[in-house]
Amino acid sequence: MTRLTCSIMLCIALMPALAIGDPPPYQPVEANLKARKWFQDAKFGLFIHWGAYSVLGDNEWVMNNRKISVREYEKVVSKFNPTQFNAEEWVSLAKSAGMKYITITAKHHDGFAMWNSASNPYNIVKQTPYEKDVLKLLADECRKQQMPLFWYYSHLDWHHPDYYPWGQTGHNTGRVPSGSFPKYLDAMDAQLKELLTDYGPIAGIWFDGWWDHQMKIANNPLQTRVDWRLRQTYDLIHRLQPQALVGNNHHVSPFDGEDFQMFEKDLPGQNTTGLSGDSKAGKLPLESCETISRAWGYNRHDTQYKSTRDLLHFMINSAGRNANCLLNVGPMPSGLIQPEAVERIQEMGRWMKKYGESIYGTRGGPFPPAEWGVSTERSDGSLYYLHVLNPNTKTIRLANFRAKSIKGWDSTKPKSIVAIRVDEKDTIIELDPSQLDPIDTILIIQPQS
Known about the structure:
The chain folds into 2 domains: 26-361, Glycosidases (TIM Barrel, Alpha-Beta Barrel); 373-447, Immunoglobulin-like, CATH 2.60.40. By secondary structure, it is an alpha/beta fold. The protein is built from 11 helices and 16 strands. 27% of the residues lie in helices and 20% in strands.
């Protein structure tokens, strides 16, 4: 063997290239690309955190936070009997509010399935007195009312014996510290297959819990203690339902095989909660999720409901940053949604009925978010909308921009615009704060062609 041959073989051995068996980069099919456009146009969805944990009325993390063992938690599950659950009322509420899709927790971190899972008896049909498949009831009603439906599915599982090694959570469940993580992933994929074959067309899968095994290592923030086989799972989803959109609340930049990027309790480009990490807004469709109160799952002690104004501002700010708003409710163990949440959703629906044109079918506008508010634009670029969210705004400067026309949305307040002038290359809009809407004053701009 020559010295040159040895050098070549050594270089090949040290190359960090993809292994021979690694899949090629993900290429979404046409149906998936069309679904992405629909998703970006939808702008407003309903998030539902609901499961057996609602019985305890102390959030969806109660099993971990109270250090409840698997055996004791199963007693909680046996008391879950949501006899007042009404899928028609839920879907009708979302639809009347102008919401365009629903995302519900099919399985949260407690491992409890809200459907009649054939591969795991730990589910609502086999373990509760209710004995009905909630997801089937909801999927049928969504199909009836033409409401797209996403499944939330937790990677993390505090109940399954093969979820081992344990991550950062669930260390006080009384499980034996052993198991086969590949077997757990097989079980997870088996459940996902059920969700994608037994419930009709599904809009997508909303993953959560990857972060349970994340390692904080300098220069390698994406490393985990286990191999999640994400691409294998994503390919399974896309094979079963090519149009289904895959998203993952992992708090880092998107992985290959994902179709949209999400931000938890934050707007794209912000990290006020500390959850976004290195996750900067990318080119995929975006979604920001937020709670109506403080909690995701039902908490009987949580009475700190956000105002309708604040919730509308989150939605409008999301749209101005090119993202959807996924607004969460945590129904009670009875199956009813808290009246405080219903009231706010209905109020948002009345606003959307009047001003939805400035949100639906738009993208983040050409003018960056500023102290005065945000901008949106029609997806074809024909109109821009300025959302003046600060009612104290006196002046808006649109840098390097000339408009064909600028007018107020609400003709009953024509005095909101005091003057429009051009200063060199900029357009300056002078406003009268006494005429501004306390929630959102919308200005419609027709750009020069």
